[in-house]
Design goal:
InterPro entries: FANCC (IPR000686). 72% of the residues lie in helices and 0% in strands. By secondary structure, it is an all-alpha fold. The protein folds into four domains: 126 residues; 119 residues, no CATH class; 88 residues; 217 residues, no CATH class. It is elongated, with a radius of gyration of 32 Å.
């Protein structure tokens, strides 16, 4: 508490000096400095109010003798008054200074002064007597006239900016770059006012012919912050222009999404999907330049976490939302070629992965999976089909559409035929992209053997958890985090969900498998992803779905 008091006193002195500088000069530099510090000053006012409301007015004056000067300077600064909630917080602070029962003339004078300042704040848009008489003569009351005047001014400026954008190189009819820059600076404290939205949109969409960006960085930052905090709502075209023109804003939007995902419940894809759609990033990513930046940040997250399953699942959900937005947009205008989104991979591979399984008859799923495997294998091992980025780029593309990999496991377990080599290779590559040919071949042999045992056990009249543990190799000294072990665990979980006898021993098997919290989270993620995918593809298996939900609920109560 004492530290908070010291910090507030230091902040008080800092802002008192700032306000004095802003009050003494009204230059371009002081305006820029004011706009740059508006958010920080508002936060200081909040802290000041929290302190003031705990004191009586006499204590306030004793502790902060110059509080009146500070608040007065703030109240006569139009940038501060116009910014977000600063006006409201200033009123709260002033009310804390009022003596409810003044004991002397000094306190009465202070009350009168506060009332005058409050009157100024509540009528911040003031005109002289002649203007007031003029508006009354037109039949307007000030309460009707002032908002209408602001609205008309904004619409007029927005219209001028749109003409400026359309005029291109016609310099005689174009707005001067200095004026555009000035407008963007003036807008900074007004961003959250609904009436100013048309001007903000027009500024974002208006592109000059200057070699350098003319809009102020503070403008971009303020607009982006307001969008992220849902304080304003702009058309998607304006949001796309913002993120194209100011890369730090796009990066901050991605980091804001990551923060929300990290703070949310792990392994809940429905919530992740809501966060992703709410971020506007999938819709904006229909522009290839934005998609490439977003995808690169996902790539960095994937590499930093060494291929964490949560990141892979998030990439897959984002891709699904992006594809939906792309299909919606393509109905209205020509879309970009797929190569512009995934430049390092084969266009034919991208096209087949982009297909929605819902649009393919189930009887053709196996054929499609074999085709995907063939294209990937050629790109990875033979370096054909235009793949320039090596195995990682092919795998990175594949995980965007990882639902296909999960379908492989189900296809293998539901078929009594010999497991096709193409599907075994696809699974081995999905789980072990860094493996070389020889190691991948060993994984394929191991998986084929496990599949044979599982299919034989599915025909058995009795199943035991211990038998399944033996088949899966859970009792060996093998690293449980190894890709092959992860693959086998997921095969086993699929078997439990689909095999008729698997339901009765499912919990016992999972208890044996979940040696560590890491594996428990992996199993939770698998079950959640399976349910999410079944729902999306319309796969109906009430018994399996019920089991998956029960297991998921039980596991979540234990972590």
């Amino acid at each position: 508490m004492a530290q908070d008091s010291v910090d507030l006193s230091c902040d008080y002195q800092f802002w008192m000096q700032k306000l004095s500088v802003w009050d003494q000069a009204s230059t371009l530099e002081t305006q820029q400095d004011t706009c740059l510090h508006l958010a920080q000053f508002q936060e200081f006012l909040r802290k000041m109010y929290e302190a003031l409301k705990e004191m009586d007015s006499n204590t306030v004056i004793e502790r902060f003798p110059t509080i009146g000067q500070l608040l007065a300077k703030a109240c006569w600064n139009p940038f501060i008054l116009a910014y977000d909630e600063s006006q409201k917080i200033l009123i709260w602070c002033l009310c804390c200074l009022i003596n409810k029962e003044p004991q002397n003339s000094g306190q009465s004078k202070l009350n009168s002064w506060i009332q005058g300042v409050l009157s100024h704040i509540l009528s911040a848009l003031r005109f002289d007597k002649e203007v007031a008489l003029f508006t009354q003569g037109l039949g307007y009351a000030p309460i009707d006239y002032y908002p209408g005047l602001l609205k008309n001014m904004v619409l007029s400026l927005a219209s001028e900016l749109r003409e400026n954008h359309l005029n291109g190189f016609n310099t005689q009819r174009r707005m001067a770059p200095e004026r555009v820059a000035s407008l963007s600076r003036v807008c900074v404290p007004l961003i959250t006012l609904t009436d100013v939205d048309p001007l903000v949109e027009a500024l974002l969409i208006c592109h000059g012919r200057e070699p350098q960006e003319i809009l102020q960085p503070e403008f971009f930052e303020a607009v982006n912050e307001a969008i992220l905090l849902k304080k304003i709502s702009l058309p998607m075209s304006a949001v796309v222009c913002l993120w194209l023109r100011h890369l730090p804003s796009l990066e901050k939007a991605m980091l804001h999404l990551f923060e929300k995902l990290i703070s949310s419940e792990r392994n809940c894809l429905r919530r992740i999907e809501c966060f992703i759609k709410d971020s506007l990033l999938p819709q904006a990513a229909c522009h290839p330049a934005i998609f490439r930046v977003v995808d690169e940040m996902f790539r960095c997250a994937l590499l930093e976490t060494d291929g964490a399953l949560e990141i892979i699942a998030t990439i897959q959900v984002f891709t699904q939302c992006f594809v939906e937005a792309l299909e919606k947009e393509s109905k209205q205008q020509l879309r970009f070629a797929l190569k512009t989104y995934f430049p390092y991979t084969s266009p034919s591979l991208g096209m087949v992965l982009l297909q929605d399984p819902q649009d393919i008859p189930r009887g053709h799923w196996l054929q499609t999976l074999k085709h995907i495997s063939e294209l990937l294998r050629e790109a990875v091992e033979d370096q054909t089909h235009g793949s320039r980025g090596g195995p990682f780029e092919s795998w990175f593309l594949f995980i965007h559409f990882g639902g296909w990999a999960e379908m492989v496991a189900e296809q293998l377990l539901m078929s009594a035929a010999e497991p096709p080599t193409a599907l075994l290779w696809l699974l081995a590559f999905y789980y072990g992209p860094r493996d070389g040919r020889q190691q991948r071949a060993q994984t394929m042999v191991q998986v084929k053997a496990v599949l044979g045992h599982l299919l034989a056990m599915s025909r058995s009249s009795s199943l035991s958890a211990q038998d399944l543990q033996t088949v899966a190799g859970q009792g060996t000294d093998t690293d449980l985090r190894a890709p092959a072990q992860q693959l086998i665990r997921h095969l086993l979980l699929n078997f439990l969900l689909w095999a008729p006898g698997g339901h009765t021993i499912a919990w016992d098997v999972i208890t044996l498998m979940a040696h560590t919290a890491e594996i428990t989270h992996e199993i939770i993620g698998f079950l959640d992803q399976t349910l999410y995918r079944w729902n999306r593809l319309g796969i109906e298996s009430p018994r399996s779905e019920k089991l998956a939900r029960e297991l998921l609920k039980e596991l979540r109560t234990q972590v």
